[in-house]
Amino acid sequence: xxxxxxxxxxxxxxxxxxxxxxxxxxxxxxxxxxxxxxxxxxxxxxxxxxxxxxxxxxxxxxxxxxxxxxxxxxxxxxxxxxxxxxxxxxxxxxxxxxxxxxxxxxxxxxxxxxxxxxxxxxxxxxxxxxxxxxxxxxxxxxxxxxxxxxxxxxxxxxxxxxxxxxxxxxxxxxxxxxxxxxxxxxxxxxxxxxxxxxxxxxxxxxxxxxxxxxxxxxxxxxxxxxxxxxxxxxxxxxxxxxxxxxxxxxxxxxxxxxxxxxxxxxxxxxxxxxxxxxxxxxxxxxxxxxxxxxxxxxxxxxxxxxxxxxxxxxxxxxxxxxxxxxxxxxxxxxxxxxxxxxxxxxxxxxxxxxxxxxxxxxxxxxxxxxxxxxxxxxxxxxxxxxxxxxxxxxxxxxxxxxxxxxxxxxxxxxxxxxxxxxxxxxxxxxxxxxxxxxxxxxxxxxxxxxxxxxxxxxxxxxxxxxxxxxxxxxxxxxxxxxxxxxxxxxxxxxxxxxxxxxxxxxxxxxxxxxxxxxxxxxxxxxxxxxxxxxxxxxxxxxxxxxxxxxxxxxxxxxxxxxxxxxxxxxxxxxxxxxxxxxxxxxxxxxxxxxxxxxxxxxxxxxxxxxxxxxxxxxxxxxxxxxxxxxxxxxxxxxxxxxxxxxxxxxxxxxxxxxxxxxxxxxxxxxxxxxxxxxxxxxxxxxxxxxxxxxxxxxxxxxxxxxxxxxxxxxxxxxxxxxxxxx
Length: 726
Fold this sequence. Notes:
The chain is an alpha/beta fold. It has a domain at 617-725. It has a seven-stranded mixed β-sheet, with helices on both faces. Strands 5-10-7 form a three-stranded mixed β-sheet. It is globular.
């Protein structure tokens, strides 16, 4: 097959079946011998209920290890021979890549209480990058807000207005704030589809931390235009902009191991790929018709609205006959990652509960078998943690029973007899084989770089590359048991029907670890590690030796978590060139533009602590531009009940006389949502003598006079000019 002219519509279903059978065969060849050796070990000491459970746990867990190893092996051989012919990106010819696309495309970014500066500057650099391509003239950008924090809400409105003015992008960049954040991100996108979806052929979905170059966005649209039976194309974003140690470890591992793994993933998924919820393009017509999310029967956490919507939407799209592909070979596609272990675990808790809901969909009617596999693997990705915990516990119980009951080995009547293996040789061989399969993806990723001098140089050379692999392997080996206990705890809480909130993720510099929160999150892990080490050491010193990395990670969890969440250490590693990724040694223009813009923002003045807590309210009331924009985006109500009018009047009076602290957050939010109140407050603050206003408002007026002296306001200076002045 000619790689340069792949046509997804001509893909023979037998080819997909052959590939999946090949993967399954490879998994069996890897996992089968290990399971047989474990079964033989238990046979030699006599089976009981504990050993049956132990063997079942080992079979499931080693099957997952074998899947990762098999997928990586396939990806390695594909890359070594020049790539996979069956890639959606190969459907574009050079002529297609130069073509101007006139299809109307919406580029949407749902946000909820995110860092506004990062969001606005991200939109800025992406908009300018798309404009520079001159290949997608009919595209619009949408900032879709579910923010319920007044500071974020007002800052988004002000930032959006400043952005459109500075770029001359009126009518091209839109802002919408929902009054109620029903169904979180999926509800946000559904609301967009209901209101504006019929005006666009495609929708490029971003996260608040997504960055895509104009060329990458255009390429996604060209792929959809070239392949009319494709409903979703999911890009594979690279992790970038990591500053803490953990963030840099994640982006290094993703950049080094990711391409091999993604090649193996695409090998068996083909047109039944998954959708990850961001950095993807969607064909809106079929998405609107077929991908409305069902509400699961019963209450949460397993019932109600679906939390992890992306897997389900991909399955619904495929059920309707539309293809879903993974675009593995596409540059200019980036996202960011959590900065510390606690943020990493909290994000996993949200994903965990959403994935566990999918257990009710595995057997649902009409879904493709591969989509059912996606659901099952998503569940097992988190269920593996309590299974590993149970495996370790049962191992300790078996060792205890072995030592206290005086079990003698049975005569050998198995393959071990012909191999000349003793019992201890079998144990050692199985342990080494397991470790080999766990670390095989890392070794294959390094071997895949042989002969690719430019790629090795982009990582800093073989010395830095090997040093980074050693550091990443060492730290993540210690963090693995910590995450295992986090996931186990989250699953227990979910099974106990404890719901979770879907809060914002602390990104960038805000993701640095705090000593207090680190101790609070990990003291239990330390205690479990100390007790486990003492108990297992008393049972069997050999078993304690094999489990020592687990106990070491738990015992050292507090300093380890604090260290990996350190911004200073992470920046020092970057200065030394350790954990370097190609995007740092060969900076991409869009990433450099974003970094420069954020650097200017971070050097800017900020309000004092007293004003910062309610700075959004300050802007919405005092600044005539912000007030006008905010009011224009609200829905005016014709008539309010008399009781509501009296309540708002009382709240306004309290706010002016006593300041924002005298009102509850709900009351402040209610005022911000009321058109009449915002107009009245603006007039009264500027018209009233300062002696009639609370001291907070007097300080706010002084701050505003300094920040925006007449006649200039925050919006009368082009941000480009502001950068030049600074």
